[in-house]
Amino acid sequence: MENLADALLNFNDISDLTAWLQTNDFDSN
């Protein structure tokens, strides 16, 4: 989850964050 935490720090726009989350399917891990 370190990558997710790091990503959160880098996203200023919630829509960008949502798009990133959709790109990275955590449910499959």
Keywords:
29 residues; 2 helices; flat
Brief synopsis:
The chain has 29 residues and is mostly helical. The termini are close together.
Descriptive notes:
By secondary structure, the protein is mainly alpha-helical. The protein is built from two helices and no strands.
Large-scale geometry: flat
Average pLDDT, all residues: 73
Percent range for helical residues? 55-70%
* Biggest sheet descriptor: none
Q: How many helices does DSSP assign?
A: 2
Task: Give the helix/strand class.
Answer: mainly alpha
Number of strands: 0
Calculate Rg over CA atoms: 9 Å
Q: What are the segments in which pLDDT stays under 50 over at least 5 consecutive residues?
A: none
Strand content of the residues, in percent? under 5%
Walk me through the topology.
Elements: H1 2-10, H2 14-23
